[in-house]
Amino acid sequence: MTTRPIARKLHIKGIVQGVGFRPFIYQLARRHQLAGRVANTSSGVTVHVEGAPLAIETFCREVMIRKPMPARITDITGYDADYEGLPEFTISPSQQKTNRSTLVSPDIATCDDCLKEMFDAHDRRFHYPFINCTNCGPRYTIIDDIPYDRPSTSMKHFTMCEACRTEYEDPANRRFHAQPNACPACGPRVSLHDKAGRRMDENDPVADAVRLLKAGQIVAIKGLGGFHLAADATNSEALQKLRQRKRREEKPFALMSQSLTQIGQYAILTPEEQVLLASPVRPIVLARKREPNPIANEVSPKNRYFGVMLPYTPLHHLIMSAGFTALVMTSGNRSEEPISIDNDDAISRLAGIADAFLMNNREIYLRSDDSIVFHAAGDRRLIRRSRGFIPAPVFLKNKVPQILACGGELKNTICLTKGDHAFLSQHIGDMENARTLDFFHLTVAHMKRILDISPVAIAFDMHPDYMSSQYASAQTDVAQIPVQHHHAHVVSCMAENHLDGEVIGLSFDGTGYGTDGCIWGGEVMIATHGAFDRAAHLSYVPMPGGSAAIKEPWRMAAAYLMDAYGDDFADNGLTVFDDLPENTTNLIAKMISQGVNSPLTSSLGRLFDGVAAITGIRKHVRFEGQAAMALEMATADNDRPLPPSETYPYLLPPDGKGSIPVHPLISGVVRDMLERVSVPEISTRFHWTIIYLFADLCRQLREKNGLHRVVLSGGVFQNAILLKGLTLMLAQQGFSVYTHKIVPSNDGGLSLGQAVAAAAIIKTHSA
Asked: N or C, which end of the chain is more exposed by having fewer CB within 10 Å?
C-alpha cells in the first residue's frame, strides 16, 4: 500500500446539522493527523480530507462508528479528490445550494453536561434557563430555513457576547456552532407577568413562579414547543380550578417530575418505561398508577394510568428542583385549539385560565406538543408523535415522488415525501376550528420550505367535509388523489414495516368515510399499497343522532340492542336508559326505523362505546375515545388469555368474506348483565371475543388466498389488551404480524399511509 498522501471527498446526508457533527469531524481528522475541511451544505455535510491512505481509511470508518449521539447518517458518498496539500484541517462557512435535502434535527432534551454547569454555583451559566450545547437544546421549533445556522433561527435576534462567541468559534468546544448558544449576559431571559400581561417586580422570576405554584396558583410556562399550564399535582383545589377554567372535565393531565425516583412514588415503572422516560426525546409515558399515591384524584380520574415525563428544558429542571413531587404540565391552550407559542397570544387566550405567566423573549417558530408513548406487546407504541421525533423521517423501502398528504380530521398530521424519506409533521390537532386550520397551513408551508419539497401530487381523505380534504381539493395545480381512510391506515403500517405485496389488513377505529358512503371502522381488507378489497366488516348498525352518538354512547347501546332484540330493546331489565327523559327510547327507535339522522356504521370503536354503555361504565363521554378507554380499564386485572370456552358466541361470514353479525356478542353481554356477572369479567370476555373472532377470520382468509401476513392499524389498537392479544393469537396460528412502532396507529399516522398509497396509484397510472 502506498504511503503517498491522497485526498478523499465525502458527502454525508442525514441529521448532521445542529448536532455537533462538524466539530466531531474536525476533532476526528485532527486525531488522525489529517488535513482538509468540513462544511455544512443545504443537502448535508461535505468533507475534504487529505493525508496517509490508512489514516483516511480509518477516519472514514470511524465517521459512522463514533458519530455524535443525536446525529443520524442516512447516506455517505465517497470518491477520490485532487490532493491540494492543505496545511491543516479547518471548518468552512456553510454553503447554500439550490437542491436542499438536509435532515433537520428534532429538539433534544438538556444533556447531563449542561445540567452539571447549570447547577454549579461557580459556572457563568448558573441557573441560566437557556443553557444548551451541540448535544442538546431547541432545533426544529426555532428553525426557519436551512442550512441550520444562527441567522436562520429565532436566535438571530441575540448577539453573542465575547465569551459565548469564543466558545462558538472554537472547534474543540462542545458549543462550537451550537446555534442557540447564549448566556445570561447576551441571551434570552425569562420574566414573570400577571394575568393582564403586566410584568411583575421580581429578582428571580423562576423562584417567584415556584412560590405561586406552591400557593396553589396556575402558571402558564413558555417551554420548547409552546406554553404549558402548570399546577401542583398534589393540590386538589388547584386542579379543580384548572379543570373548571380550561373546561376539561375528565381527560387526564400529564405530569412532570424531577427524577425516575420521584415518579416511582406514585407510578409503577417497568424497565422499558424507564428507558422511554430517560430517552433524549423525553416523551410523556403512560405508566400504571401506584396505589395509594400522593397525586390528587383530579389528575387522572377513573383511569389506571398516569401520563408522566421528565424535565427536558433547563427551565423545567430549575422549576422541578424546587421540591415538587409532580407538577401537572398540560397543553397551554383553550379547548380544541392549538397550544399558544406567542407571548401576547398566550396572554390573550389563557388569561382566563392562568394566574400568571412565566415567559421568555425567544420566539418559537413552530409549535410542537409533547409526544405520548406507551409500552405494549413488547415494544414502544406512539399515541402522539411530535416534540423530539419531528422532523426525523420515516425511511421508506422504495423511492417515491414528492407528495403532500393532508391527513384526516382528528389528530391531524401532514406528510411530505422525498426520495425514500417520508416526513410526518408534528401533531396539528383536530381540524375543527379556524386556528387549527391556520396551524395546518403554516405547517405545510414551513415543512415544504425547510425540506425543499414541491409536491407533484396531493393525497387526502375521501370524506368531502374534512377541512384537510377541502384544502387538498383547492390545490388545482397538482394531481389530487383521494385515499380511503382505512386503506390509508393499513398502508401506513405496511410502509413503516417495509412491506410490499398483498396483506390481510385489520383496520379498526371509530370513524372513517367508506366507499359506500357509510361510516366504516371494523374493516378486514386484502390490501396492497395502491388498492384494497374489503373482505369483511362488522355488520352495519345505525348511529342515532349522527355525531351525537359519539358523545352519548347510550345511543349506540340503543342501536346495538335494537339490532339484537328488535323494537322492544328497552324492555330487557337493563338500567342503561333509566336516567333518560320519558319516551326517549321510543324516539330513538323511530329515528332508527325511519333512517332519520342515523347514518350506518361498521365501526369497532362504536361497538366499544355501545358495550361500555350497556355495562353502565360510560353513558356519556367528555373526550374522544373515553368510553372505549373506560371499557379497557374495566377488564379483569390480569394478563392471562381467556380460553375460547369463556368468550361470547360469534358468527363468521362464509370464507371470511362479508358482514360479521354483532348481535350474538351483544346478547351474551346482556345475558351476563342480567345474571349479575361482574363488569370486569364482562369486559374481559368482550375483549377476548373480539380477539378470537378476528384471529379466526384471518385464518379463514388464509385458507382461501394463502396470505400469511397480517397488518394491525387504526386507533382501536391503542388498546393494549387487543394489541397484545391479537398479536399473540395470530402469531400462535402461524401468521407474521406487523404493528405500529414508528408512527401512531391512530389518525396521527394516517398521512403516511395516504402518501405511500398515492405514490403507488401514481406508479400504476404511469405504467
From this structure: C
C-alpha cell belonging to residue 412: 391531524
Sheet holding 89-91, edge to edge: 72-81, 6-15, 44-51, 35-41, 89-91
pLDDT tens-digit readout, 519-539: 999 999 999 999 999 999 999
Residues 6+ apart with CB under 8 A from 323: none
123-166: pLDDT as tens digits: 999 999 999 998 899 999 999 887 778 999 999 999 999 999 99
Dist CA 392 CA 134 (whole Å):
17
Q: Mean pLDDT throughout 482-492?
A: 98
d(CA 411, CA 496): 19
Q: How many CA atoms lie within 13 A of 722 on its CB side?
A: 29
- Structural domain boundaries of the chain? 6-91, 105-188, 190-360, 537-707
| CB-based contact 252:303 (threshold 8 Å) | yes
Alpha carbon distance 79, 734 (integer Å): 47
Judge whether 69 and 135 are in contact, CB under 8 Å: yes
Are 523 and 507 spatial neighbours (Cβ–Cβ below 8 Å)? yes
Alpha carbons 583 and 227: distance in angstroms, whole number: 47
SS3 26: helix
CATH of 190-360, one of 3.90.870.40, 3.40.50.150, 3.90.700.10, 3.40.50.2030: 3.90.870.40
Other C-beta atoms lying within 10 Å of the C-beta of residue 501: 10
Percent of the chain whose predicted confidence (pLDDT) is above 70: 99
CATH number belonging to domain 6-91: 3.30.70.100
Chain centroid to Cα 148, Å, comes to 24
- CA neighbor of 429 nearest in space, from 416, 444, 419, 439: 439
Domains 105-188 and 190-360 share a fold: yes
pTM above 0.85, yes or no: yes
Which triple of cell numbers denotes residue 233? 399535582
Confidence of residue 98 (pLDDT cuts 50, 70, 90): very low
Give the DSSP letter string of 529-569: SS-EEEEEEEPPEE-TTTTHHHH-HHHHHHHHHHHHHGGGT
* CA-closest candidate to residue 226, choices 367, 428, 350: 367
What is the spatial distance between Cα 193 and Cα 57, in angstroms, rounded to a whole number? 58
Rounded CA separation 64/509 (Å): 41
Question: Are 447 and 416 a contacting pair, CB within 8 Å?
Answer: yes
- Residues near 638 by beta carbon (within 8 Å), at least 6 away in sequence: none
The amino acid occupying position 662 is V
Task: Outline where DSSP puts E strands in 22-99.
Answer: 35-41, 44-51, 72-81, 89-91
Type and span of the H or E element at 751? helix 750-766
- As a whole number of angstroms, the distance between CA 747 and CA 749 comes to 5
For residue range 703-735, what is the model confidence (pLDDT) as tens digits? Answer: 999 999 999 999 999 999 999 999 999 999 999
Q: CB under 8 Å to 755, separation ≥6 — which residues?
A: 400, 403, 404, 405, 415, 416, 417, 422, 459
Contact 520, 505 (CB under 8 A): no
Cα 388 to its chain centre, rounded Å, is 10
Q: For helices 679-705 and 604-614, what crossing angle results, to 10°? A: 160
| 8-state DSSP, 188 | -
Q: DSSP letter string over 207-269? A: HHHHHHHHTT--EEEE-SSSEEEEEETT-HHHHHHHHHHHT--SSPPEEE-SSHHHHTTTEE-
User: In the CATH scheme, what is the code of domain 105-188?
Assistant: 3.90.870.30
Grid coordinates of 73: 447518517
CA angle 397, 398, 400 (to 5 degrees): 130
Task: Identify the sign of the CA torsion 556, 559, 565, 569.
Answer: positive
